[in-house]
Specification:
Elements (H helix, E strand, L loop, with lengths): L3 H18 L3 H14 L6 E5 L5 H9 L4 E6 L2 H10 L4 E4 L17 E7 L7 H12 L2 E12 L7 H19 L7 H9 L5 H10 L11 H10 L2 E10 L2 E8 L11
Parallel strand pairs: 1-2, 1-4, 2-3, 4-5
Antiparallel strand pairs: 5-7, 6-7
Helix pairs in contact: 1-4, 5-9
């Protein structure tokens, strides 16, 4: 059985390798949670799409302890880690690309916010519309999708896109120099070699949960899919280089956003 301490150690190692690609990761988390908080509900219902082992979900719940956070991922190994490390979270195994995934969430009221970090890029452009359309069906009017990821703009502003990548590369060089953290592949090779994860690793392979590369790397792919799914206001709330927090609003707000203190 996977212990809480062992899971916590693996997730700390996960977070570190993620920082190698996103040195501003904690700032990004903070900006995203700020936006959820600014919606004005002390007890928001939030879905974390492609939650991995729950890094964002756990941080969100620490900031907003009255929130209900439902963490969704298709990878059985990552869900195994998250359940052992964060028993206060609700993990739901589901593939966002499979129609009907929202029926697995056990929702009893409309969702206030859907959040995601470095996950939705592995869904192809044509599939994104279906994902966002189903998501919109459970979001309240004025509810939001907050998606933090690397999104390129090569197709519309190629010079800016090149400069955005350069800013990110310089920031990464300053953060790590010649000693970058463990990379994605090395982390996966290490955890799948651990006997404690043998069953989950086999299930992961059978389910085809592993993904590689970026199926929807362009911001325009996400914006187009969101518009076709019925989202109205779409824009960037936070950005560092090509790493950005994209926000999309479903319909008109049902009430004004909370006033700033």
């Amino acid at each position: 059985m996977l212990t809480h301490d062992a899971a916590t150690e693996w997730i700390a190692r996960w977070d570190r390798q993620q920082e190698g690609y996103i040195p501003e990761r904690e700032e990004r988390f903070t900006a995203l949670i700020d936006a959820v908080e600014a919606l004005g509900r002390p007890d928001p219902l939030v879905i974390d799409l492609g939650c991995g082992p729950g890094s964002l979900s756990a941080r969100l719940l620490r900031r907003l302890p009255a929130a209900t956070v439902i963490s969704v991922d298709a990878d059985p190994l990552l869900i195994m880690l998250g359940r052992a490390a964060y028993p206060e979270l609700t993990f739901v195994p589901a593939d966002l690309r499979t129609s009907g995934w929202t029926k697995l969430l056990g929702l009893d009221r409309p969702v206030d916010a859907a959040v995601s970090t470095t996950a939705l890029h592995w869904i192809s452009g044509p599939e994104l519309k279906a994902v966002f359309t189903e998501l919109a069906s459970v979001l309240r009017p004025g509810g939001v999708l907050l998606n933090a990821d690397h999104m390129a703009t090569d197709d519309v502003t190629p010079t800016l896109s090149r400069l955005e990548r350069a800013v990110h590369e310089r920031q990464t060089e300053r953060a790590f120099g010649a000693n970058p953290p463990e990379d994605w592949r090395s982390w996966w090779e290490a955890i799948t070699a651990d006997p404690a994860f043998a069953e989950a690793s086999e299930e992961r392979t059978t389910a085809g949960a592993a993904h590689h590369g970026s199926e929807s790397r362009l911001m325009s792919e996400h914006v187009e899919a969101l518009r076709e799914a019925g989202f109205t206001e779409i824009g960037t709330l936070w950005q560092r280089g090509d790493d950005r927090l994209l926000c999309a609003v479903r319909g008109r707000p049902s009430r004004p956003l909370a006033a700033r203190a």
